[in-house]
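for the record, two folds in this file. i put them one after another cuz i was lazy. first one right below, seq on top, structure tokens after. the second one comes after a little note so u can tell where it starts
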Amino acid sequence: MKTDLLKSLLPYFTAIIIFILISIIYFSPVLNNKVLDPGDVKRWKAAAREITEFREKEGEEALWTNTMFSGMPAYQISVNYPTNITTYLHKLINLYLPKPANILFVSLIGFYIFLLAFGVNPWISIAGAVAYAFSSYFFTILEAGHITKAQALGYMPPIIAGIHLAFNRKYLIGAVLMGLFLAMQLYVNHLQITYYTLIIILLYGIFELYRVIREKDYLHLLKSTGILLIVVIFAVGSRTPNIWSTWEYTKYTMRGKPELTADIENQTSGLDRDYATAWSYGIDETMTLFIPNFKGGSSMGELGEKSATYELLKNAQNASYAKRMCKNLPLYWGDQTFTHGPVYLGAVIMFLFIFSLFIVRGKLKWWLLTATILSIVLAWGRNFMSLTNLFLDYFPLYNKFRTVSMILIIAEFAVPVLAFLALKEILTENINPKEFKRALKISLFSLGGIALFFTIFPGALSFSGPGDESYISQGANVFIDALKEDRQMLLRNDSFRSLVFTLLTAGLLYVFYIKKIKLNVFIISICALVIFDMWPVDKRYLNNDDFVPERQTREVFQPYQADLNILTDKDPYFRVFDLTEDPFRSARASYFHFSIGGYHGAKFRRYQDLIEHHISKNNMNVLNMLNTKYFIILSDKQQPEARLNTGALGNAWFVDKIILVNNADEELNALTDFNPLSQAIVDKKFEQNIKDLEMITDSTASIHLSSYKPNHLVYESSCTNDQLAVFSEIYYDKGWNATIDGKPVSHLRSDYVLRALVVPSGKHTIEFRFTPHAYFTGNKIALASSLLLILFALGVIGMEVRKKYF
């Protein structure tokens, strides 16, 4: 009994050990206390600095920060949700491995669980896990610093596996699997990946519903959907404070419905079409799924000494100069603005995928094929606007997400699934010889023919990219010619590479089918082919050179002398506008100061309007009302220099006149020419707040900030008549609450983005506290939901263990 148990568990324990070893070996620098230091992580650290320092000092969550875009909620930056018990499960499944080895491990184990749920041989499922986890996109996003995205992708396959088990009458264990992994995916908080997971599930549900209707299996449908719905409620409930807060906030961000009427054709109820489709995969770029360098690879790639560009630069300067310049060359010539690397699924996997289309039968094939095609076509974005517009306008929530090419993660999931379902069919000997040979020939001739064509005729393409024009305009035609020659060389080399793996895979399938090799040799060979195919390509985009000593990452940014000069100012709270680089794509200033700019994909829509219509046009009235006390500019010697702005209005002031406007268009336009020190522009929807106010000028009135915390601002005021105070703070009524001498009062929006408040005569203490109901009530719901989910899971697991072994 004991021996049988150990023997049955052997492949699973072996898989875990192999996955740990693969993760550690690939990211071997972690053994020397080295870490990744990608740009997006640096930007995140800068954005989160005030939040994390406040947490350490006060022992509570700030929930708001003023270091980016003059102020915004912290929900999508850094917020802890201590009542969610599934947090500990997330840590446990990562085995406390160092980053990013833990992320790779979760992707491996997640897809392994999925294949087991679909009945794939546990040994060959190891190769399937590698095929999924080593998709090149997973490594390029790690190199870029998209950590939560990579984590969410690791949790996606087990969620779908749980649903499949439940619909195959393993109700309880399927529900547990789906519920726990959905809770963990929601915990890592990348809602776009969760959204794509739901699309896969929706497609699965459509084909399952068709089967149910055909077989009239309605009771089973009710049981499976009922139990799954219960655990979905628990899983979603465990993330209530984040989901609720995000849902509220989204309506006010760039992903919410626009208020302005200009450029209406480009607008959706979420992101503008241009913004949503900025990263669209080219139609011919889809070939990178099979040939990684079909479009040159990375926007900033490296060439060796045998390249035409190296020879050109060496002859122009010297070998040292050529080596240095060849480390970062614009090799990519596709449609996207820039890219860290292609989406490469592997020549081995693509061959097995095409092969599977002729071997796999039933709803699973049509589900996965539909998902693959839909994913590829939607990834084309602006290159196929008829379908993209359909989804942007009519598919719920689709227009809330940018980077449409990201939906290729559905194909990255579906393609290896079908590939290994085909191997499952081969291993169970369900394929007759005629069927097998036909599938093998079509797969070999189609993919092999494509690879052979581009190996022999790589010059059939133009190799001209949109970015080449800037070099040509500077007279660098010779450089571009050399670059085109190297792009052609990259295509030829990778086409030949894919041809070799195609032939090897076809040959391996054939010799196994005719029983020339044993099962264990076949499984080891498939594993080896997948690893040898994927590993070197992934190393092009994420390798040991990307790791740095941990101590090197502690100081995220080095301050300019200008920053040090500004930091000597004793005023506790003012804003800085750093113009030494793009202020709205850099978070550097946010690391040191309260910044006008910043870097985040979900800023307030009204603030973005302010940027586009006024800040970018250097409207000093707007910059003054935002309390921009310092500008950082480049001096004549191209050195950062701090410039004091004496026109900054401070933290709060009283105005003499109110200008009422009818809508957002009028409100924004009114900022073009107004005096923010004496005038307040107010939308008529807030007219009720000021209807009893008589605007009487009081030259002796004063108001000043007496205490600052990111979530708690205290002002002292003095005036002989009721006054309207304008505060240089971003208006957001889903959490900011005002009191005067401890009594709650309502406040209003002024000057398009700021807060305003009617202050009664006399001396008063005015306080603004950020206490969003969604967070504090949501935490109570999260505690109950996560506790119920864990108890349910423990009960089901206990029942299964008792049933099987006792």
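(here's the note) second protein begins now
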Amino acid sequence: MTELQREHNLARAPWGQQARTALVVDDEQRIAEAVAMNLELEGFQVFTAASGEEALSKVTEELPDVVVLDVMMPDMDGFETLRRIREISTTPVIMLTVRGDEADRVRGLDLGADDYMTKPFSPRELVSRVRAVLRRTEMPSPVPKTEVRVDDDLSIDFNRRRVLVRGKEVHLRPTEFRLLYHLVSNAGQVLTHETLLRRVWGYEYRDEDQYLWLYITYLRRKLEEDPKHPKYIIGERGIGYRFKELEKK
């Protein structure tokens, strides 16, 4: 990136703030440059890496706000790179792949990816997804109550972002916590698939039912004594999900 481009990006950032930074990781230089150019046009300061090892160095040296990571790379593929990024950083990661296999998408999300896009994709959609991921990770959820005691087995402290399940604290990723927040805040009411997708992921994800299904599965594994027969997060077939009604004090 030239000094002129850097000054232009800083000028487009909100007053008093540095431009958002992005790391683009792809061994195909043409693709990396195209993605970088589109992000730069939207005001991002962009770094690039051509391998998993280089990406790990850039994550620790440059501290990017978001990583756009290709899956198919030689030596260390995107999945292994993501696994090692998650050992040192919670930076949001969007994975890119030419394969649209559901197994690949699930694997990436299980390893801690925040989003997944299949090539070819439109530059506008990629920028939109990047901004949506940043909104999810940077916007704190409002706090309706400091603490909600669901029953003897589950209590949630929204202010401290702590969840206790049968007396033990469980770790929730930011997206899992946002999903739980919206479910608990509307306990007893059915929230449609589209409503949850818009509120938790953003308007751009209103048709991505698989994301919702996966994160409901993650929450049930962490909260429910028997995830196959949940008592907290109940599915309404073809409509959405509801959290069990809270007992009135």
